[in-house]
Design brief:
Low-confidence stretches: none
Helix content: 25-40%
Number of strands: 8
Mean pLDDT: 87
Number of domains: 1
CATH class: Alpha Beta
Order of helices and strands: HEEEEEEEE
Structural class: alpha+beta
Strand content: 25-35%
CATH architecture: 3-Layer(bab) Sandwich
Distance between the termini: 48 Å
Shape: elongated
Largest sheet: 4 strands, antiparallel
CATH superfamily: minor pseudopilin epsh domain
Oligomer: single chain
CATH topology: minor pseudopilin epsh fold
Amino acid sequence: MVELVVVLFLLSLVAGLVLPAAGRGIEAVELRAQVAKLSAFLRYGREQAVTKRVAHEIRIDPEAHRLTLSPVGSDSPRAQRQLSSRIQFSADAPSGAITFSPQGFSSGASFRLEAPSGRAYRVTVDPFTGRVTNSPEPG
């Protein structure tokens, strides 16, 4: 009987230590998934501008965590992406939109995605090449 109590105590102790760490791991995976989703959508916007030979813009709504792709001057969206509301999302883009030209250039932008734990990533769109890169932020 004493052995059973000791085993149950050890199991509860291990569970108390492991579960919080697993939660942080899940949060990190969700953050990386949102970074990949944002990066892929930005690359898609550039690809549409180049292949259709029409300038496209991605409008950014940081409060709603929403991105909308459409040809420049058009009100009908070609595609939309919704980012997780659990991730803090901020954008540094001129006029709240990124424009991709048919030549592959962009107006440039930078995004910061942060998990509740403080872990953050920066996604950047180069204005000269339209290249999308992401990297973890220190801290």
